[in-house]
């Protein structure tokens, strides 16, 4: 069916059409993956280093946007991984366009990276998408939980080990020690790839970077020992009429674990979100996290509200 529609590489002027397409999909999908024009523009204008990203739009002959396909390819020293994503207007899904656009993305990925491993994810309770991926030969390999905690409930005061201090990150000055800490923290985690310094530098230079929610714990000898990154999606909160904040990163460096730093930094992050007026904290966690992160979150009052499946496929 794709031959009946025209497709093109997305230009910045096409983004309003994509906003409308994602909004139409959201009515049916209820995944909260629709985006404002400002959010799409930021992503379009600020692509991260070490990554290829290509976006394509499918239209009817009269110019109506009915399909959106994109893929990103991350170049790692030891591997190449690709991440396609497909959205099709609900009125056109009966024609199998999603599968055809996904196949098209896979073929484009293969031209650029013949040995790439492809990853997609879907909510476990959204059978439309789990069936799409499984019918395309993707295999489920990992499950991730989204957890929620009310910020109206009491938040205990963080207790740091003796001599440790906390502070927010200080821009470019902290980039290299922060990256060293991050890589030492997650080196034993599933699908870990070292974070390049230039990617961290790119992250803190973004217009929506929230420096006041980016915290680190510093050991008595000055070593960055743990961190908690929080984030507020203001546009999403405006759309949903909710006051939600996210714990987007939490970790303790190897050599500093089992001292209560993870718990303390999580409590600090929750306090910071509450201080901004947020009412609910959210986070995502690997169900097989090697450091028992889910148990920590549950002990702090978080509850699982949904589960996502990570699928993979080798071309």
TrEMBL record:
Q: PROSITE patterns in the record, alphabetically?
A: GNAT
Q: Enumerate the InterPro entries for this protein.
A: Acyl_CoA_acyltransferase, Bact_Acetyltransf, GNAT_dom
Superkingdom, according to UniProt? Answer: Bacteria
Which Pfam families does the record cross-reference, listed alphabetically? Acetyltransf_1
Q: Which GO terms describe its molecular function?
A: acyltransferase activity, transferring groups other than amino-acyl groups
User: Which CDD domains is this protein grouped with?
Assistant: NAT_SF
Q: Which UniProt keywords apply?
A: Acyltransferase, Transferase
Q: Could you confirm whether the keyword Nuclease appears in this record?
A: no
Q: Where is the N-acetyltransferase domain?
A: 164-315
The answer to whether UniProt assigns keyword Acyltransferase to this entry is yes
Which PANTHER family does this chain map to?
A: AMINOALKYLPHOSPHONATE N-ACETYLTRANSFERASE-RELATED-RELATED (PTHR43877)
Record-given protein name: GNAT family N-acetyltransferase
Source species of the chain: Adonisia turfae CCMR0082
Q: What is the lineage of its organism?
A: Bacteria, Bacillati, Cyanobacteriota, Adonisia, Adonisia turfae
């Amino acid at each position: 069916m794709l031959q009946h529609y025209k497709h093109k590489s997305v230009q910045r002027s096409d983004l309003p059409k994509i906003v409308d397409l994602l909004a139409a999909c959201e009515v049916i999908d209820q995944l909260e993956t629709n985006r404002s024009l400002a959010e799409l523009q930021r992503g379009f204008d600020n692509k991260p280093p070490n990554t290829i990203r290509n976006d394509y739009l499918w239209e009817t002959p009269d110019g109506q946007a009915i399909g959106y396909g994109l893929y990103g390819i991350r170049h790692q020293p030891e591997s190449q991984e690709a991440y396609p994503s497909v959205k099709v207007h609900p009125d056109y899904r009966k024609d199998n366009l999603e599968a055809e656009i996904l196949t098209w993305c896979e073929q484009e990925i293969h031209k650029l990276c013949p040995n790439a491993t492809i990853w997609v994810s879907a909510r476990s309770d959204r059978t439309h998408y789990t069936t799409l991926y499984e019918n395309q030969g993707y295999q489920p390999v990992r499950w991730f939980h989204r957890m929620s905690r009310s910020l109206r409930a009491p938040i205990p005061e963080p207790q740091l080990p003796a001599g440790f201090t906390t502070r927010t990150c200080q821009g470019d000055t902290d980039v290299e020690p922060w990256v060293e800490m991050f890589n030492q923290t997650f080196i034993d985690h599933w699908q870990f790839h070292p974070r390049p310094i230039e990617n961290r530098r790119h992250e803190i230079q973004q217009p929506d970077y929230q420096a006041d929610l980016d915290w680190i714990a510093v050991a008595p000898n000055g070593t960055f020992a743990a961190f908690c990154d929080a984030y507020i999606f203001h546009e999403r909160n405006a759309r949903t009429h909710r006051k939600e904040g996210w714990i987007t990163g939490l970790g303790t460096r190897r050599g500093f674990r089992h001292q209560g730093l993870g718990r303390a930094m999580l409590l600090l992050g929750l306090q910071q979100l509450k201080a901004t007026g947020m009412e609910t904290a959210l986070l995502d966690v690997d169900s097989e996290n090697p450091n028992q992160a889910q148990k920590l979150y549950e002990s702090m009052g978080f509850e699982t509200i949904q589960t996502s499946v990570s699928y993979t496929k080798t071309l």
